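Internal tracking record. Fields below are filled automatically when a chain is submitted to the structure queue. Please do not edit lines marked as system-generated. If the sequence contains nonstandard residues, flag them in the REMARKS field before resubmitting.
Queue: standard
Priority: normal
Entity type: single polypeptide chain
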Amino acid sequence: MCPLSSGKVPTPSTVITLERQGADIQRKGRRIRTVESLRNHHKLKDDAISQFSDQLCVINNLQEKETSASMTYIFLTLNGYQFE
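SYSTEM-GENERATED OUTPUT FOLLOWS
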């Protein structure tokens, strides 16, 4: 039961206790907001890494196709194939 709801005048120690509890609640609230902010930042970084990884795979595939096409061109040229 809350000491203030009893209708009695709060004592100085009760006021100090309530102030401490209020400060603890505020501190916990700030800590929760900080943790949520860190989680959101971590998720953004994970999403960016995933996007860069996907882009790297696309670039790698394009390079492999370009290398394959170049090798085919060189092979055909060395074997006398004439391109029009």
